[in-house]
Amino acid sequence: MVTVSVLAVLAAVAAPSFTPLMERWRVRSAAEDLQASIYFARSEAIKRGGGITIAAIDDDWSNGWKVATPDPDAEQLQTGNVPAGLSISEGSATTSLSLDRWGSISPAANFLLAPAGKDKEDASAVRLCVNSSGRILRVSGSSDCP
C-alpha cells in the first residue's frame, strides 16, 4: 500500500512536466501532416495538369484541411485532421491554396501551428513557410518567413 502511494505521488509530480512534451508532439505531428498534404497536392496537380486546391475546412485551418479538385461532384482526394488542443492560423488569412500544373502554389502561405491558447512565442510553436514554388521551410513560431 505504501509503494502504491509513493508511486501515485511521483506520478502526480511528474505529470505536469509531460505537458510541454505532449504539446510539441501534437504540433510536430500536425506540421508533418500539413506538409505531407501539400506535397501530395503538388504531385496530384502535376499529374492531373493543375486545378488542385488545399482548403481549410469551414474556413478555419484549425478544423483541418482538404485536398480536392475544382469539380464539386468529384470526391476529395485527401483530408487532414488537427489534433485537439492545437490551433493553426495562416498569416494572410487565406483559406484556400491553388496549385497549377507545375505544382506552383498560389498564394504563398505562412502557417503558424501552436498549442491552443498559446501564441507564437511558445516553445512548442512552429511556423511553416510555403513559397509559391512549393518549397516548405519549417522554423520556430517566433521566426518570420524568409
In words, what does this structure look like?
With 146 residues, the chain is of the alpha+beta class. It has one domain (2-140): minor pseudopilin epsh domain (minor pseudopilin epsh fold, 3-Layer(bab) Sandwich), CATH 3.55.40. Helices cover 32% and strands 27% of the residues. The chain contains one helix and nine strands; from the N terminus they run αβββββββββ. It starts with a helix and ends in a 6-residue tail after the last strand.
What would a concise description of this structure say?
This protein has 146 residues and is α+β, with helices and mostly antiparallel strands. Helices cover 32% and strands 27% of the residues.
Question: Structural class, from secondary structure content?
Answer: alpha+beta
Query: What is the count of helical runs?
Result: 1
* Biggest sheet details: 5 strands, antiparallel
In what range is the share of β-strand residues?
A: 25-35%
What is the domain total for the residues? Answer: 1
CATH homologous superfamily designation: minor pseudopilin epsh domain
- In the sheet with the most strands, the strands line up as 3-2-1-5-6
Order of helices and strands: HEEEEEEEEE
Gross geometry: elongated
In the predicted model, the low-confidence regions spanning at least 5 consecutive residues are: none
Radius of gyration: 19 Å
Terminal CA distance: 58 Å
- Considering DSSP H and I runs of 4 or more, what fraction of the residues is helical? 25-40%
CATH topology: minor pseudopilin epsh fold
Number of strands: 9
The CATH class turns out to be: Alpha Beta
Mean model confidence by pLDDT: 88
Can you tell me the CATH architecture?
A: 3-Layer(bab) Sandwich
